[in-house]
Amino acid sequence: MEPEKTFAPDRRSDSASRSSFCSHFWSSALRSKPLNTSSNSGDELVRRLGMFDLILIGVGASIGAGIFVVTGTVARDAGPGVTVSFILAGVSCVLNALCYAELASRFPAVVGGAYLYSYTAFNEITAFLVFMQLMLDYHIGAASIARSLANYLVNLLELIPIFKHHIPDWIGHGGQKFLGETFSINILAPILLIILTIILCRGVGESSIVNSFMTSLKIVIVIIVIIAGSFKVDVANWSPFFPNGVKPVLTGATVVFFAYVGFDAVANSAEESKKPQRNLPIGIMGSLLVCASLYIAVCLVITGMVPYKLLGEDAPLAEAFKAKGMKYISILISIGAVAGLTTTLLVGLYVQSRLYLGLGRDGLLPGVFGKVHSTRHTPLHSQIWVGFVTSILAGLLNVRVLSHILSVGTLTGYSVVAACVVAIRWKNKSRADASARGTAAWMEGTCCLVTIALCGFGAGVCYRYNGSFIILVVAGILAVSALSALYWRQVYGETPGFSCPWVPFVPGICILFNMFLFAQLHVEAWVRFLVLSVVSVGIYAAYGQYHAKPVSSNHTTQYHRSPGEAV
Fold it and tell me: How many domains does the chain contain in total?
């Protein structure tokens, strides 16, 4: 009897402790961030980015070396119909951009992007999960881009006879591999990352100048390539326009969708943009339209210059010009690729530091990430951390073997942002209607959004593995039913600033297509999503839930206007 008396209180204590932990975890995980708009001139990030700067940030993040490669690669299967692939992907991105534009206008001058929007529309744990998925994409993607940039620079140097065949692999040619395929040493990639990190640490003004110059150079080169190639176009190469049918065109649209990714970087520039309620939507939509125009023009030129079957895989555009006796254009293309990769890398590093800044301010990461330098007005600690992590990855790992697990964060972020547009408009309504009916309506709407996402993923899996057409029809019917329920059974509040049209249909279509694309990713990407989600919940349970401060963080809950900015 005595042992029972001794251990029973311990068991009750352990049970109470577990109950207390679970209660605290859920109460923390389900809280959201309220946002206020006030006027205050004491902002720490300086507002220096105008409308033109924001457009160039979006273009700089979107168009890298891929414009000279992916266009011809997809054209090998889709033929001249690759133009339609880019149009379809562009339309899908426009719908996603409309969602981003509304939220960027609704929460002007606040860092965080997709993380902030999900924190406000849903809850803390969703926001942290979105951040973790995005950040892994950003870190690996930046390391991969740095290696590609190093390779292009070495190729340019080897045009000089004294360097030809004299630059070892460990400097920049892919890297010197060891311990199998996972590790490889690359010296030039980390050096380039350190240089760009120093530029970003000096201030947003200096980094904006570099980005504007390199992006402008890139656009000029692309336009020269388009004009030069247009004189060599043979319209007979455009017939037939769909040589292999429609399916390769649709599949191509899922591939080239990622060529447009980058416009969301504009949303993360909110706290450093002038007149953000006006300029952010213009920057997002303007950069996307510029990119779409350039991609479509390059597609028409490359498929018109040579028959699509003759396009190479590694450098199709350069080989097309060589086939027409215009070898000097290939040098110009290499310079354009260097400029494109530089701006993509620069903007990527910039966006990462601003996301870390947002979480540091909110307490979900250590406070050092939330500090802004008093004179440089940049998140110095966050920027150095981002540069350090990506330099290690680029210098020691063969990040190309990890490329097939990328894009998970991007599609997750885009889907959540689309859902935020709908949920935040409910939230406005639920504030006025705090009854049980308001809560039930919010839960019902959330279930509809999840249903649309699952239908998109299911249809994507069915399409990928050539499943039964009946499954596609059922998924379509369920998605339409969920959209109809969102339209007829929910009440939507008005939104200040830019407003996404046709809510909930535009956000619903975005979620459906994004999850369809998610199903086209490598199976290992799905595993990465699940594993990282579990790890993220563990990190949040151990640290985030105890340190988060969603309400008291004035840095992220107020709109600080710059001196002289019109109200």
Answer: 2
Question: Helix, strand or coil for residue 49?
Answer: strand
Q: Kindly state whether residues 418 and 370 are assigned to the same domain.
A: no
Q: Which two tokens stand for residue 126?
A: 């969703």
**8 is a domain residue:** no
Rounded to 5 degrees, φ, ψ at 397 are: -105, 145
Residue 286: CATH number of its domain: 1.20.1740.10
For residue 33, being part of any structural domain is answered with no
Q: Are residues 489 and 397 in the same domain?
A: no
User: Token pair of 389, please?
Assistant: 């992590």
Q: Are 305 and 229 in contact (CB under 8 A)?
A: yes
Closest CA to 382 of 405, 350, 421: 350
Long-range CB pairs of 312-317 (<8 Å, 24+ gap) are: 312/72, 313/73, 313/76, 314/69, 315/68, 315/69, 316/68, 316/69, 316/71, 316/72, 316/73, 316/75, 316/76, 317/68, 317/69, 317/71, 317/72, 317/225
Domain of residue 480, residue span? 408-493+500-520
Q: Give the DSSP per-residue string, 13-42.
A: HHHHHHHHHHHHHHHHHT----------S-
Same domain for 457 and 480: yes
136: Cβ–Cβ under 8 A, 6 or more apart, which residues? 408, 409, 528, 532
DSSP secondary structure, 345-374, as one string: HHHHHHHHHHHHHHHHHHTSS-GGGG---T
Cα(479)–Cα(516) distance, rounded to whole angstroms? 12
Q: With residue 103 as reference, give the H or E element that holds it.
A: helix 82-106
pLDDT digits (tens, 9 = 90+) for 232-269: 999 999 999 999 898 889 888 888 888 888 888 898 88
Report the C-alpha gap between 164 and 158 in whole angstroms: 4
Sequence-distant (6+) residues with CB within 8 A of 359 are 115, 128, 131, 365, 369, 370
Whether 482 is in a domain gets the answer: yes
CA 504 to CA 412: how far, in whole Å? 18
Instruction: Give the single-character DSSP code of 407.
Output: T
Answer for the pair 207, 387: CB distance below 8 angstroms, yes or no: no
In a domain, 37, yes or no: no
The two three-digit tokens of residue 282, written as one number: 């213009």
Extract long-range pairs of 357-360: CB within 8 Å, 24+ residues apart.
357/111, 357/382, 358/111, 358/112, 358/113, 358/115, 358/116, 358/556, 359/115, 359/128, 359/131
For residue range 128-173, list pLDDT tens digits in order.
Answer: 999 999 999 999 989 988 988 888 888 888 877 777 777 777 776 6
